[in-house]
Design a protein that fits this description.
By secondary structure, this protein is mainly α. It has a single domain (4-189), classed as Four Helix Bundle (Hemerythrin (Met), subunit A). Helices cover 65% and strands 0% of the residues. It has ten helices and no strands. Helix 2 (34-46) crosses helix 4 and helix 2 runs parallel beside helix 10. The longest helix is centred in the middle third of the chain and has 24 residues, at 69-92. The relative contact order is 0.15. Pfam families: UPF0149 (PF03695). It comes from Parathalassolituus penaei. This is YecA family protein.
Length: 192
């Protein structure tokens, strides 16, 4: 177990800088916002395939970046620092601190931050779907269920629609995400 105070966290200024740069890029073109990037990095670190920052860039951004050279360098540096922070949390064994309210009920947002985070996470899963499900398909599906639900990508499935009809149940399913992320990480990495 790590001392949680020693986890290398981004400062408020760094978080704000990264959030603003990603938001501006997302408005310029259809790229990932901060929450989706965080989810994507979390999935790539959680899963069975070795982490690679190039994958984050390829997956989250359009080929024609709107960042200046300095902005791109700043985003890259801050995303690498964010990846180290996420890795430290995964290694801690504590419930994973998803950077969003664990609810899909958000009157102010078209896409609640949790949904964006879960879309990013599921994108990371789908990139390496074969490897994710190679060992225990049913167990992995159970561990992924709450994140799959929160992503909205599977909303057409009857089981998901039933949860949507019950706000308390929806919040309960979303509330299971922090523990399930750690369970997934241990599932893939505890034999190492």
């Amino acid at each position: 177990m790590n001392d949680l105070n020693s986890i290398p966290a981004l400062s408020e200024n760094e978080l704000e800088t990264l959030g603003v740069l990603l938001e501006e890029e997302a408005e310029r073109q259809d790229s990932f916002d901060f929450f989706a990037i965080h989810g994507l990095i979390t999935a790539l670190l959680t899963g069975p395939v070795p982490f690679d920052m190039d994958t984050v860039w390829e997956c989250a951004f359009d080929d024609k970046l709107g960042f200046s050279a300095d902005e791109k360098k700043t985003v890259d540096t801050l995303m690498k620092k964010l990846a180290r922070e996420i890795q430290a949390w995964l290694d801690s064994g504590e419930d994973f601190p998803v950077p969003a309210e664990l609810t899909l009920v958000d009157d102010e947002e078209d896409e609640p931050p949790l949904e964006s985070w879960a879309i990013g996470f599921m994108t990371g899963v789908m990139l390496n779907e074969e490897e994710w499900y190679a060992r225990e398909e049913e167990e992995v599906a159970q561990l992924l269920f709450s994140t799959m639900y929160a992503s909205g990508l599977f909303a057409d499935e009857e089981e998901m629609a039933d949860i949507d009809d019950d706000v308390d149940l929806s919040n309960q399913v979303c509330g299971a995400i922090p523990a399930s992320v750690i369970d997934m990480y241990l599932f893939f990495h505890s034999q190492e």
